[in-house]
Write a structure and sequence with these properties.
By secondary structure, the protein is mainly β. Helices cover about 10% and strands about 65% of the residues. It has one helix spanning about 1-15; strands spanning about 25-35, 35-50, 50-60, 65-75, 80-95, 100-115, 120-130, 135-145. It is globular, with a radius of gyration of 17 Å.
Length: about 150
Amino acid sequence: MKKTVFISVLFFILIVSSPDLKSTELAIHGGLENGGKQFYGLYANWGFLPFISSEGEYNYNLDTKNKLFSVGLSVKLKFSFFSPFARAGIGFREEEFSYSGIHLFYYLGGGLKFYLAPIMGLKSGVTLLNEKNLSYYRIYGGVFIEF
């Protein structure tokens, strides 16, 4: 019983503390992946604990016409005008609209956000995507807004 109360109090403190670290982020980004192929995408996350956010992402590859959908977690630290972050999750890559054209993957990555204003800035990062028979890096940059 005491452990449950302690964990509940700790969880409550984490939720209500550091409200500036718990934010919603929306971003538009683009970059290169898998040997120089261009892509662009949309990114969103929601900070449910200080330093920890859930995330979702959609990317479209202009060269291969592949679509990527992913969900995961991100961790960030904020220092004045910059914020390093790390991210991990799972997703699927769709080559065509059929079950044979869907490939599951996991990803690991990180990067750096530069705040141009308290709620907006520039973002760049590197992500490793690993499928069953394919592994490649994605380098990206974009703009974000937090609220």
